[in-house]
Amino acid sequence: MGSADDAPPEIAEKVRTALRTVTDPELGINIVDLGLVYDVEVEEGEAKVTMTLTSPGCPAGGQILGGAKDAAESVDGVEEAVVSLVWKPFWTPERIDPAVRAMMGF
After folding, report:
1. What CATH number does the domain located at 9-93 have?
2. Strand segments (E) across 31-79
3. How far apart are the C-alpha atoms of 77 and 19, rounded to whole Å?
4. Boundaries of every domain in the chain
5. Residue 1 pLDDT grade (very low, low, confident, very high; cuts 50, 70, 90)
6. Distance separating alpha carbons of residues 25 and 43, to the nearest angstrom
């Protein structure tokens, strides 16, 4: 996770916490614990979230990306959020939080 010099690092952490309210509707697990969020930066009121999906054909992709934008913009100190979807590195189950992965049986 990164943060710009002019934004307190706790704002980026608050954005990451807010992103935990966004769940993958197929798995019922939040996008942070799933390892879908790669980076969060906040600079001059703009949150930049870099993330992926579990697969390029994810039917809930639009819902998840929209939820991420809304969650980031709900944080005090964030005026606008830009969510960037990337495919490298490609998501694998190893990116899931270890405790959640164990609960899922991976």
Report:
1. 3.30.300.130
2. 37-43, 46-51
3. 15
4. 9-93
5. very low
6. 30
